[in-house]
Amino acid sequence: MAKRLLLILSVLTFTAGMTACNTMKGFGQDVERGGEKIQRGSDDARK
């Protein structure tokens, strides 16, 4: 039962994220920006 609920919630979250981006290009840009922010945070932590 818990696995099924987790699967449903995961699918709903993924679907909501995809509709927010409107296109796959937009989704790719969002992922790229997220990666850049993580990289900047890592660089700042090293300093």
TrEMBL record:
GO terms for cellular component: membrane. One of its GO terms (biological process) is response to toxic substance. Pfam families: Entericidin. Residues 1-20 form the signal peptide. Keywords: Cell membrane, Lipoprotein, Membrane, Palmitate, Signal. The keyword Signal applies. Belongs to the EcnA/EcnB lipoprotein family. This is Putative small secreted protein. The lineage of its organism: Bacteria, Pseudomonadati, Pseudomonadota, Betaproteobacteria, Burkholderiales.
